[in-house]
Amino acid sequence: MSCLLAARTIASRLSTNRRYGTAALAAAAVRNDPKREKFVIALGESDEAYLKYSENRTSNTISLEHTFVPDAGKGKGLGKQLAEAAFQYAIEKQLKVKLECDFTVKYFKDNESKYKAYVTE
């Protein structure tokens, strides 16, 4: 077997055996699931990363409550993608953001100059 053929075979096996490929995660689309009140990144047939929220239209706020990324997706920037999508949604809908999740607090602190005007207590 030539080196090129062996490399292709190995690469093919690795890509089909990986649960979440890095390239696929980098291009992962965040979608809003308003019925479940979650921003979601689908990671496979039944697995997902998500940011749970609740909206209060009376006070024009969105509370970012909990971020979850499965172990296989950690360290790939999925939490940041979810938080960014949540902030963009809040900006588009003219909602003030309440930070109840430790991850979103950290994300906000790392991007405070960009989002300071949109956060409330």
TrEMBL record:
Coiled coil ranges: none
Source organism (scientific name): Anopheles coluzzii (African malaria mosquito)
PROSITE patterns linked: GNAT_YJDJ
Top-level taxonomic group: Eukaryota
Residue ranges annotated for the N-acetyltransferase domain, each copy included: 31-120
Family annotation (InterPro entries): Acyl_CoA_acyltransferase, Gcn5-rel_NAT, GNAT_YJDJ
Family in the record: Belongs to the NATD1 family.
Protein name (Swiss-Prot/TrEMBL): Protein NATD1
